[in-house]
Design brief:
Blueprint: H1 3-8, H2 16-23, H3 38-58, H4 61-70, H5 80-91, E1 94-98, H6 104-112, E2 115-119, H7 136-143, H8 150-170, H9 176-199, E3 202-205, E4 208-211, H10 214-217, H11 220-228, E5 233-236, H12 239-242, E6 255-259, H13 262-277, H14 293-300
Parallel strand pairs: 1-2, 3-6, 5-6
Antiparallel strand pairs: 3-4
Length: 305
Protein backbone atom coordinates (compact mmCIF):
# COMPACT_ATOMS: atom_id res chain seq x y z
CA UNK A 1 0.00 0.00 0.00
CA UNK A 2 1.43 3.43 -0.94
CA UNK A 3 2.76 5.47 1.97
CA UNK A 4 0.49 8.39 1.04
CA UNK A 5 -2.61 6.23 1.46
CA UNK A 6 -1.38 4.99 4.84
CA UNK A 7 -0.60 8.53 6.03
CA UNK A 8 -4.05 9.84 5.10
CA UNK A 9 -5.82 6.95 6.82
CA UNK A 10 -9.52 6.59 6.08
CA UNK A 11 -10.61 10.15 6.77
CA UNK A 12 -13.74 11.34 4.96
CA UNK A 13 -12.73 13.37 1.92
CA UNK A 14 -9.06 12.45 2.31
CA UNK A 15 -8.90 8.69 1.76
CA UNK A 16 -6.85 7.65 -1.31
CA UNK A 17 -7.85 4.00 -0.86
CA UNK A 18 -11.52 4.88 -1.31
CA UNK A 19 -10.93 7.51 -4.01
CA UNK A 20 -8.92 5.02 -6.07
CA UNK A 21 -11.70 2.44 -5.77
CA UNK A 22 -14.24 4.98 -7.00
CA UNK A 23 -11.93 5.89 -9.88
CA UNK A 24 -11.85 2.22 -10.87
CA UNK A 25 -15.65 2.10 -10.72
CA UNK A 26 -15.68 -0.21 -7.68
CA UNK A 27 -18.76 0.45 -5.54
CA UNK A 28 -18.51 -2.56 -3.22
CA UNK A 29 -15.13 -2.78 -1.51
CA UNK A 30 -13.37 -4.21 1.53
CA UNK A 31 -12.78 -2.49 4.84
CA UNK A 32 -8.97 -2.30 4.76
CA UNK A 33 -8.74 -2.01 8.53
CA UNK A 34 -4.99 -1.47 8.72
CA UNK A 35 -5.40 1.86 6.93
CA UNK A 36 -7.17 3.50 9.88
CA UNK A 37 -4.86 6.04 11.47
CA UNK A 38 -4.58 6.80 15.19
CA UNK A 39 -6.51 10.00 14.43
CA UNK A 40 -9.33 7.94 12.88
CA UNK A 41 -9.63 5.80 16.00
CA UNK A 42 -9.50 8.90 18.18
CA UNK A 43 -12.36 10.45 16.18
CA UNK A 44 -14.49 7.35 16.80
CA UNK A 45 -13.58 7.38 20.50
CA UNK A 46 -14.59 11.03 20.92
CA UNK A 47 -17.83 10.59 18.99
CA UNK A 48 -18.85 7.48 20.91
CA UNK A 49 -18.01 8.69 24.40
CA UNK A 50 -19.69 12.04 23.85
CA UNK A 51 -22.99 10.65 22.55
CA UNK A 52 -23.41 7.58 24.77
CA UNK A 53 -25.18 9.45 27.62
CA UNK A 54 -27.61 10.95 25.12
CA UNK A 55 -28.41 7.52 23.70
CA UNK A 56 -29.30 6.35 27.19
CA UNK A 57 -31.63 9.31 27.61
CA UNK A 58 -33.19 9.73 24.16
CA UNK A 59 -32.76 6.52 22.12
CA UNK A 60 -35.44 3.86 21.82
CA UNK A 61 -34.93 0.66 23.80
CA UNK A 62 -34.42 -1.48 20.66
CA UNK A 63 -31.42 0.66 19.71
CA UNK A 64 -29.89 0.39 23.17
CA UNK A 65 -30.25 -3.38 23.09
CA UNK A 66 -28.69 -3.36 19.63
CA UNK A 67 -25.63 -1.46 20.85
CA UNK A 68 -25.08 -4.11 23.50
CA UNK A 69 -25.74 -7.02 21.14
CA UNK A 70 -23.12 -5.78 18.67
CA UNK A 71 -20.49 -5.05 21.36
CA UNK A 72 -19.43 -1.91 19.50
CA UNK A 73 -16.03 -0.80 20.76
CA UNK A 74 -15.80 2.58 22.47
CA UNK A 75 -12.13 3.17 21.79
CA UNK A 76 -11.63 2.31 18.10
CA UNK A 77 -13.35 2.04 14.74
CA UNK A 78 -15.18 -1.31 14.65
CA UNK A 79 -14.27 -4.10 12.28
CA UNK A 80 -17.25 -4.83 10.05
CA UNK A 81 -16.42 -8.54 10.14
CA UNK A 82 -16.93 -8.45 13.92
CA UNK A 83 -20.16 -6.46 13.56
CA UNK A 84 -21.51 -8.86 10.94
CA UNK A 85 -20.61 -11.94 12.95
CA UNK A 86 -22.94 -10.73 15.71
CA UNK A 87 -25.58 -9.11 13.48
CA UNK A 88 -26.24 -11.81 10.90
CA UNK A 89 -27.58 -14.48 13.29
CA UNK A 90 -30.10 -12.00 14.72
CA UNK A 91 -31.85 -10.74 11.57
CA UNK A 92 -29.85 -11.91 8.56
CA UNK A 93 -28.55 -8.39 7.90
CA UNK A 94 -24.94 -7.57 7.01
CA UNK A 95 -23.04 -4.28 6.78
CA UNK A 96 -21.69 -4.10 3.21
CA UNK A 97 -18.72 -1.71 2.76
CA UNK A 98 -18.99 0.74 -0.13
CA UNK A 99 -16.75 3.35 -1.70
CA UNK A 100 -19.29 6.16 -1.67
CA UNK A 101 -22.76 7.14 -2.82
CA UNK A 102 -24.98 4.21 -3.78
CA UNK A 103 -27.56 5.06 -6.51
CA UNK A 104 -31.17 4.73 -5.41
CA UNK A 105 -32.24 1.35 -6.77
CA UNK A 106 -28.94 -0.30 -5.83
CA UNK A 107 -29.32 1.01 -2.27
CA UNK A 108 -32.87 -0.29 -1.89
CA UNK A 109 -31.94 -3.57 -3.58
CA UNK A 110 -29.24 -4.07 -0.95
CA UNK A 111 -31.92 -3.68 1.73
CA UNK A 112 -34.06 -6.18 -0.18
CA UNK A 113 -31.16 -8.66 0.19
CA UNK A 114 -30.59 -7.74 3.87
CA UNK A 115 -27.39 -5.86 3.14
CA UNK A 116 -26.76 -2.34 4.36
CA UNK A 117 -24.35 -0.17 2.29
CA UNK A 118 -21.80 1.07 4.81
CA UNK A 119 -19.27 3.86 4.46
CA UNK A 120 -15.82 2.95 5.81
CA UNK A 121 -14.34 6.44 6.20
CA UNK A 122 -14.71 8.53 9.35
CA UNK A 123 -15.12 12.29 9.70
CA UNK A 124 -12.06 14.41 10.56
CA UNK A 125 -11.53 15.40 14.16
CA UNK A 126 -12.27 19.05 13.44
CA UNK A 127 -15.76 18.25 12.07
CA UNK A 128 -17.35 16.23 14.84
CA UNK A 129 -20.83 17.68 14.55
CA UNK A 130 -21.80 17.78 10.88
CA UNK A 131 -20.86 16.24 7.57
CA UNK A 132 -22.98 16.47 4.43
CA UNK A 133 -22.22 12.82 3.62
CA UNK A 134 -22.40 9.65 5.76
CA UNK A 135 -19.39 8.22 7.54
CA UNK A 136 -18.83 4.98 9.43
CA UNK A 137 -20.03 6.50 12.70
CA UNK A 138 -23.34 7.50 11.13
CA UNK A 139 -23.73 4.12 9.42
CA UNK A 140 -22.49 1.72 12.09
CA UNK A 141 -23.33 3.58 15.32
CA UNK A 142 -26.48 5.24 13.93
CA UNK A 143 -28.04 2.67 11.60
CA UNK A 144 -26.73 -0.81 12.32
CA UNK A 145 -27.87 -1.24 15.95
CA UNK A 146 -31.45 -0.92 14.68
CA UNK A 147 -30.77 -3.80 12.29
CA UNK A 148 -30.53 -6.18 15.26
CA UNK A 149 -34.30 -5.74 15.80
CA UNK A 150 -36.25 -8.23 13.66
CA UNK A 151 -39.31 -6.01 13.17
CA UNK A 152 -37.20 -3.06 12.03
CA UNK A 153 -35.02 -5.20 9.76
CA UNK A 154 -38.15 -6.51 8.05
CA UNK A 155 -39.24 -2.91 7.43
CA UNK A 156 -36.01 -2.24 5.56
CA UNK A 157 -36.60 -5.30 3.40
CA UNK A 158 -40.09 -3.97 2.59
CA UNK A 159 -38.49 -0.71 1.41
CA UNK A 160 -36.43 -2.85 -0.95
CA UNK A 161 -39.59 -4.57 -2.14
CA UNK A 162 -41.09 -1.15 -2.93
CA UNK A 163 -38.14 -0.30 -5.19
CA UNK A 164 -38.66 -3.52 -7.12
CA UNK A 165 -42.37 -2.74 -7.42
CA UNK A 166 -41.56 0.73 -8.80
CA UNK A 167 -39.42 -0.79 -11.55
CA UNK A 168 -41.86 -3.54 -12.45
CA UNK A 169 -45.00 -1.36 -12.57
CA UNK A 170 -43.40 1.31 -14.78
CA UNK A 171 -41.61 -1.07 -17.14
CA UNK A 172 -44.56 -1.22 -19.56
CA UNK A 173 -44.99 2.56 -19.83
CA UNK A 174 -44.32 3.06 -23.53
CA UNK A 175 -43.37 6.73 -23.47
CA UNK A 176 -39.79 6.94 -22.05
CA UNK A 177 -40.33 10.51 -20.83
CA UNK A 178 -43.51 9.55 -19.02
CA UNK A 179 -41.82 6.56 -17.42
CA UNK A 180 -38.95 8.77 -16.24
CA UNK A 181 -41.42 11.36 -14.90
CA UNK A 182 -43.36 8.77 -12.91
CA UNK A 183 -40.18 7.23 -11.53
CA UNK A 184 -38.83 10.61 -10.45
CA UNK A 185 -41.99 11.18 -8.43
CA UNK A 186 -41.98 7.68 -6.96
CA UNK A 187 -38.30 7.95 -6.00
CA UNK A 188 -38.94 11.34 -4.39
CA UNK A 189 -41.87 9.93 -2.40
CA UNK A 190 -39.83 6.91 -1.26
CA UNK A 191 -36.86 9.08 -0.35
CA UNK A 192 -39.01 11.43 1.73
CA UNK A 193 -40.68 8.55 3.52
CA UNK A 194 -37.28 6.97 4.25
CA UNK A 195 -35.91 10.34 5.40
CA UNK A 196 -38.69 11.03 7.90
CA UNK A 197 -38.70 7.48 9.27
CA UNK A 198 -35.46 5.51 9.00
CA UNK A 199 -33.25 8.62 9.10
CA UNK A 200 -35.18 11.07 11.32
CA UNK A 201 -38.04 9.12 12.86
CA UNK A 202 -39.44 9.52 16.36
CA UNK A 203 -41.46 6.95 18.28
CA UNK A 204 -43.73 7.02 21.29
CA UNK A 205 -42.28 4.76 23.95
CA UNK A 206 -42.62 3.81 27.60
CA UNK A 207 -40.23 6.64 28.48
CA UNK A 208 -42.04 9.17 26.29
CA UNK A 209 -40.93 10.31 22.85
CA UNK A 210 -37.68 8.68 21.74
CA UNK A 211 -35.58 8.50 18.58
CA UNK A 212 -35.18 5.57 16.22
CA UNK A 213 -33.92 7.46 13.14
CA UNK A 214 -30.21 7.09 12.47
CA UNK A 215 -29.71 10.73 11.49
CA UNK A 216 -30.76 11.61 15.02
CA UNK A 217 -29.01 8.73 16.77
CA UNK A 218 -25.65 9.60 15.20
CA UNK A 219 -25.87 13.35 15.93
CA UNK A 220 -24.88 14.55 19.40
CA UNK A 221 -26.54 17.93 18.93
CA UNK A 222 -29.67 17.02 16.97
CA UNK A 223 -30.62 14.02 19.12
CA UNK A 224 -31.35 16.23 22.12
CA UNK A 225 -32.71 19.07 19.97
CA UNK A 226 -35.21 16.77 18.24
CA UNK A 227 -36.85 15.74 21.50
CA UNK A 228 -36.33 18.73 23.81
CA UNK A 229 -36.46 21.85 21.63
CA UNK A 230 -39.62 23.96 21.40
CA UNK A 231 -38.50 24.88 17.87
CA UNK A 232 -39.26 21.40 16.55
CA UNK A 233 -42.77 20.52 15.34
CA UNK A 234 -43.61 16.88 16.14
CA UNK A 235 -46.68 15.25 14.63
CA UNK A 236 -48.16 11.78 14.33
CA UNK A 237 -47.06 10.46 10.98
CA UNK A 238 -49.44 10.93 8.05
CA UNK A 239 -48.66 9.34 4.71
CA UNK A 240 -50.15 12.17 2.63
CA UNK A 241 -48.03 14.71 4.46
CA UNK A 242 -44.75 12.80 4.53
CA UNK A 243 -44.57 11.99 0.81
CA UNK A 244 -45.20 15.64 -0.08
CA UNK A 245 -42.97 17.23 2.58
CA UNK A 246 -39.63 18.62 1.44
CA UNK A 247 -36.63 17.48 3.49
CA UNK A 248 -34.19 19.87 5.19
CA UNK A 249 -30.71 18.58 4.40
CA UNK A 250 -28.26 21.12 5.80
CA UNK A 251 -29.54 21.99 9.30
CA UNK A 252 -31.51 20.55 12.20
CA UNK A 253 -34.92 19.24 11.20
CA UNK A 254 -37.73 21.69 12.06
CA UNK A 255 -40.44 19.06 11.49
CA UNK A 256 -40.46 15.44 12.64
CA UNK A 257 -43.00 12.62 12.57
CA UNK A 258 -43.82 10.02 15.21
CA UNK A 259 -44.88 6.39 14.81
CA UNK A 260 -46.51 4.26 17.49
CA UNK A 261 -44.43 1.12 16.95
CA UNK A 262 -42.47 -0.81 14.34
CA UNK A 263 -45.65 -2.74 13.52
CA UNK A 264 -47.22 0.64 12.75
CA UNK A 265 -44.27 1.57 10.54
CA UNK A 266 -44.40 -1.76 8.70
CA UNK A 267 -48.08 -1.15 7.93
CA UNK A 268 -47.17 2.28 6.57
CA UNK A 269 -44.57 0.83 4.20
CA UNK A 270 -47.18 -1.64 3.02
CA UNK A 271 -49.48 1.32 2.36
CA UNK A 272 -46.68 3.13 0.51
CA UNK A 273 -46.37 0.20 -1.87
CA UNK A 274 -50.15 -0.01 -2.27
CA UNK A 275 -50.36 3.70 -3.10
CA UNK A 276 -47.56 3.19 -5.60
CA UNK A 277 -49.56 0.49 -7.37
CA UNK A 278 -52.64 2.74 -7.36
CA UNK A 279 -50.69 5.59 -9.01
CA UNK A 280 -50.87 7.86 -5.96
CA UNK A 281 -47.10 8.46 -6.01
CA UNK A 282 -46.98 9.49 -9.67
CA UNK A 283 -47.46 13.16 -8.77
CA UNK A 284 -45.99 14.44 -5.51
CA UNK A 285 -45.11 17.96 -4.44
CA UNK A 286 -41.87 19.45 -5.84
CA UNK A 287 -38.95 20.19 -3.56
CA UNK A 288 -36.15 18.37 -1.81
CA UNK A 289 -34.74 15.82 -2.03
CA UNK A 290 -33.69 16.15 -5.65
CA UNK A 291 -33.66 13.00 -7.76
CA UNK A 292 -30.30 12.99 -9.50
CA UNK A 293 -29.56 11.35 -12.83
CA UNK A 294 -27.72 8.40 -11.30
CA UNK A 295 -30.68 7.57 -9.06
CA UNK A 296 -33.10 7.71 -11.98
CA UNK A 297 -30.77 5.69 -14.22
CA UNK A 298 -30.44 3.00 -11.55
CA UNK A 299 -34.22 2.49 -11.60
CA UNK A 300 -34.53 2.71 -15.38
CA UNK A 301 -31.84 0.08 -15.91
CA UNK A 302 -32.69 -2.17 -12.96
CA UNK A 303 -33.12 -5.89 -13.35
CA UNK A 304 -35.60 -7.37 -10.90
CA UNK A 305 -36.44 -10.97 -10.11
Amino acid sequence: MPQAAMAEGLTTGRAPFVEEARHRGELYIQQNYDLYSPENHEAWRKLYRRIRPRWERYANDHFLRGIEALHLPMDRVPRLTDVNRRLQPLTGFQAKPVSGYVPGFLFFDCLHRREFPTTITIRPADRMDYLPEPDIFHDVAGHVPMHTERAFADILVRFGDCAHTAVEMTRDVRDPQERARRLRNIIKAMSRFFWFTVEFGLMRGARGICAYGSGLLSSYGELEHAIESDEVQRYPIQMEWVINQGAEIDHYQPLLFMVDSFDHLFELVDRLERWMREGKLNNVAPGLPDVNDSDLKSFLEAETH
